[in-house]
Amino acid sequence: MKINVLFQDKSIIVVEKPPKLPCQSDKTQDENLMSLLSEQLILDGAKKPYLGLVHRLDRPVGGVLVLAKTQEANRALSKQISEHGFTKEYLAVVCGVPDYPQGELRDYLKKLVTINMSKVVPEGTKNSKEAILNYSLLGTSKTEEHGEISLLKVSLKTGRHHQIRVQLSNAGFPIWGDNKYNKVFVKKKEWTQISLWAHRLAFKHPINNTPVSFTSFPYDEYPWNVFKE
Question: Is 9 a catalytic residue?
């Protein structure tokens, strides 16, 4: 599998992570982004490529991702993330239509480690963290199987485990194809591809401090192509 490189220089490499590909090796021992990209860089002439994974996308989620190519860049990017200097925008197809065309969701999430999920809990719950996102409605469409579906743009203000998935589900418009947080798809026996895509990533270049921005678009397939226009 060849990884689509959107941009690279001596300090960073920006790629489009394919859906279903884990960012790094896990217990499944499946192919992963870090290994494939390292092999690709070696084939392109790099001797001992350094790759720093400064942020991640869930395995089923595709879209834009930046990696550091030096330890200096890794430190600078990691600092930006810890100081909320990254802008992360996602596209999501959800079941239903939000009551308002724009909104902010604020919840407290607790990670359920044993089942690799998160849930919304009351403020003050032990080990919970505040989760904040903004969304805007880009379009709606009626479908035979799932009724009305909507295309949302989601801007993350915090970075919590499964944040977008659990917050949208809790708000009443779960993501199409989500086998963990959309009850309709949890009941399905067959696997479905979640309709969540990392669309835009903006940050300051770790060396020259210049603002940079990169975008990626979902594949031309259902249900994304319902909103082609």
Answer: no
